């Protein structure tokens, strides 16, 4: 997964919004203390989201049919 920092930020912001969090920080705090994390497809034109393991880097995207889903914690560089 080779994403620019602006793409990572955009995906994290989109994921927090979709998941109903008030901010990316709020989402990351919740994910840090849970056994699952919100995840989002890292492909540009896809906004598929699902719950994944906190260290997921190549989870399956049901829309794209590829291993392109990453957890919020991975996108933020926490893991």
General description of the model:
- The chain has 79 residues and is α+β, with helices and mostly antiparallel strands.
- The chain has one domain.
- Helix content is 35%, strand content 23%.
- The protein contains 3 helices and 4 strands; from the N terminus they run ααββββα.
- The chain has helices at residues 5-19, 24-32, 72-75, and strands at 37-41, 49-52, 59-61, 66-71.
- A 4-stranded antiparallel β-sheet has the order 2-1-4-3.
- The longest helix has 15 residues, at 5-19.
- The protein is globular.
- The model has no long low-confidence stretch (mean pLDDT 96).
Spatial separation of the terminal alpha carbons: 13 Å
Number of domains: 1
Quick check: average pLDDT?
A: 96
Structural class computed from helices and strand pairing? alpha+beta
Q: What is the percentage of strand-forming residues?
A: 15-25%
Percent helix among the residues?
25-40%
Taken in chain order, the helices and strands follow as HHEEEEH
By DSSP, the count of extended strands is: 4
How many whole angstroms does the radius of gyration measure?
11 Å
Specify the overall morphology. Answer: globular
Q: Could you describe the largest sheet, including whether it forms a barrel?
A: 4 strands, antiparallel
Please list the strands of the largest sheet in the order they lie side by side.
Answer: 2-1-4-3
Low-confidence region ranges: none
The DSSP helix count reads 3
């Amino acid at each position: 997964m080779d994403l620019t920092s602006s793409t990572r930020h955009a995906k994290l912001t989109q994921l927090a919004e979709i998941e109903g969090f008030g901010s990316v920080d709020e989402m990351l705090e919740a994910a840090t203390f849970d056994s699952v994390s919100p995840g989002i497809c890292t492909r540009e034109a896809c906004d598929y989201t699902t719950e994944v393991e906190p260290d997921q880097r190549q989870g399956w995207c049901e829309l794209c049919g590829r291993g392109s889903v990453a957890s919020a914690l991975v996108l933020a560089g926490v893991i």
